[in-house]
Fold this protein.
Amino acid sequence: MICAQSLLDWWWSRYDCSVPRTDLDDVDRRILELLVEDGRRSASDAGRAVGLSPAAAKRRIDRLEQIGVIRGYRAVLDHARLGSQIEAFVELRFAGRTQVDDIEAVAAGMAEVVEAFTTAGDPDALVRVRATDLDHLKRVVDRIRRSGKVTGTKTLIVLGSAALPR
């Protein structure tokens, strides 16, 4: 039987729980909101919106990037125009002793996978995929199932989505 202390020691060694919370003021938070709305917003525009000079706003944005609060910027694509008409979430279930790294590896390297999440509870993972049509989606799910580690799947096809305010 594993004692509680050794289990806790294993957990702390496996997961980095020492990430410090970053103290942000109201101006930092407003700049982040503006950048979430439009990642291409200029420092000058952000500064005007929060009452800072362009240089002061740029310094704050640079600091937020440096400390890792802003991890990157991305383009939002219209996948339907790119030919990926179908979006779906695939729930994945694994045998009880499957390691988290093995779960993450199942969807790695698949071009159709947009995001993959390991979860606590049922299901063990949730994978967001894009496919050109239902036949393509079927092939993607079959490929995931053939990994040899997946014991069950459930596919949820997205009918619509809406961007909600953050």
